[in-house]
Amino acid sequence: MIGNAIPESLTGAPGDPARGRAIVANRQTGLCLLCHSGPFPEEKFQGTLAPDLKGAGARWSEEELRLRIVDAARLNPQTIMPPYYRVDGLTRVAGAYKGKPLLTAEQIEDVVAYLTTLRD
Prior knowledge:
- There is one protein chain.
- The chain is mostly helical.
- Helix content is 28%, strand content 0%.
- It is globular and about 35 Å long.
């Protein structure tokens, strides 16, 4: 981490935006739409607790988005967004998830790749 960003890909390779969109829109994998809304006309129920994902790629750089997904608490300790890749220092974690990230490094990079395409 450097400042408010993670400058390097977690996998050493760019993610796939199409796979990233599928993760963001999937209520069992990404869970993003529980709190966020975005450009997903096929999804009737979207969250209002967090920023709209529309325009995320214009508001934040790829590196900034990566940190926000990996561990948003690094930027805001009071955030309700779960850390999708950090596993240390967590409490109240379901047994099946202890020591495991919510998303893999590849999935994180896919989500980052997708969010960077959201420019308007």
